[in-house]
Specification:
FAD/NAD(P)-binding domain, alpha/beta, seven-stranded mixed sheet, about 20% helix, binds flavin-adenine dinucleotide, about 300 residues, five-stranded parallel sheet, elongated, single chain
Length: about 300
């Protein structure tokens, strides 16, 4: 039986692990994929304090090595269910089960994909899912934002002063704005919007060079494609076990408690709105410190 089982080895989970282990707890981190989480797949990061610029893989590796050097145990497994037996919380994995006094869920979220040819091939080579993270790498270049909602508009607004040209490809006849008023369109002055359009494929050699949009005959030259069609949590298996919001994110209070005693959540998987490394690490620290406090009671 572990004191704390942490699911997910991104910045949130690893920060939790570092705090818990330093407090002398028996901790295991369960990871189904790459140790270090999304960060390990990012190119350059320029907004994590302490590093003016750092390679995503290097930062992720630093997190992992710090946790391992403290003696945090890592297991390669996928959590597929969660069970509660009295005071015991049990993570059901596809390979094994893990009993703990406390469970910290740091599952992250995944970007919705366009599911078109070239999208996976050019990930990090012109295809991005995060304008605030990667926009600076497209300074004075031509970029296309794919999406119709607030996040697509927010990406376009962010990219506008940085890039040479910004276009939006929206599958609808108009943008579907919830947070922004229609006046925002004035601020998008200079942004070409392809309405009723979908990207059919992304092409290039080593980097993105052009895209095919279904509503126009000719291919469109571009250096970058920012996919802003939303992110999604993968929490279907938690339905009915802990409270989720309408999008499937885990509801937490400001101390990272979920609706179930002994289960905490942190990072991109929570219903908090800012999804960045610095907020993931902060929430990871809060989850762990609060869990330690609650365990003492
Ligand atoms: C292309 C890109 C660029 C970005 N650039 C920046 C940037 O420059 N600056 C910045 O601050 N943020 C950036 N971000 C956002 C940042 O990566 C995330 O906010 C951060 O990684 C969230 O950390 P996390 O620990 O909550 O989740 P994640 O990093 O997503 O880690 C979650 C981990 O949980 C694992 N997991 C999920 N479900 C299960 C399961 N059932 N069983 C076992 N393991 C599971 C996943 O495999 C993953 O490793 C970027 C994101 C992307 C996609």
């Amino acid at each position: 039986m572990f004191d704390i089982v942490i699911v997910g080895s991104g910045p949130a989970g690893l920060t939790s692990a570092i705090y818990a282990k330093r407090a002398g707890k028996k901790v295991v981190v369960i990871e189904k994929s790459i140790e270090g989480g999304q960060v390990a797949t990012i190119g350059k990061i320029e907004n994590y304090p302490g590093f003016a610029q750092i390679d995503g893989f290097e930062l992720a590796d630093n997190f992992v090595r710090q946790a391992k050097s403290l003696g945090v145990e890592f297991v390669q497994d996928e959590m597929i269910d969660l069970k509660f037996e009295g005071d015991k919380n049990i993570v059901i994995g596809s390979k094994s089960n893990y009993e703990a006094k406390v469970i910290i869920l740091a599952l992250g979220s995944v970007s919705r994909k366009l599911k078109v040819d070239g999208e996976d091939k050019f990930l990090g080579k012109g295809v991005s899912y995060c304008a605030t993270c990667d926009g600076n790498f497209f300074r004075n270049k031509n970029v296309v934002v794919v999406g119709s909602g607030d996040s697509a508009v927010s990406s376009a607004l962010y990219l506008l002063p940085i890039c040479k040209t910004v276009s939006i490809v929206s599958k609808y006849p108009e943008l579907k704005l919830k947070g922004y008023s229609k006046d925002i369109l004035n601020k998008l002055n200079g942004v070409k919007i392809y309405y009723n359009s979908n990207i059919e494929r992304i092409e290039g050699d080593n980097f993105v060079e052009k895209i095919k949009i279904d509503s126009i005959e000719k291919e469109v030259s571009t250096d970058g494609v920012f996919v802003s069609i939303g992110r999604m949590p993968t929490t279907e298996f938690l339905l009915g076990k802990i409270e989720l919001d309408e999008k499937g994110y885990i509801k937490v209070d400001n101390l990272m408690h979920t609706s179930r005693r002994g289960v905490y959540a942190c990072g991109d998987i929570t219903n908090n709105t800012v999804k960045q490394i610095v907020t993931a690490t902060a929430e990871g620290a809060i989850a762990s410190m609060q869990a330690l406090k609650d365990m003492q009671k």
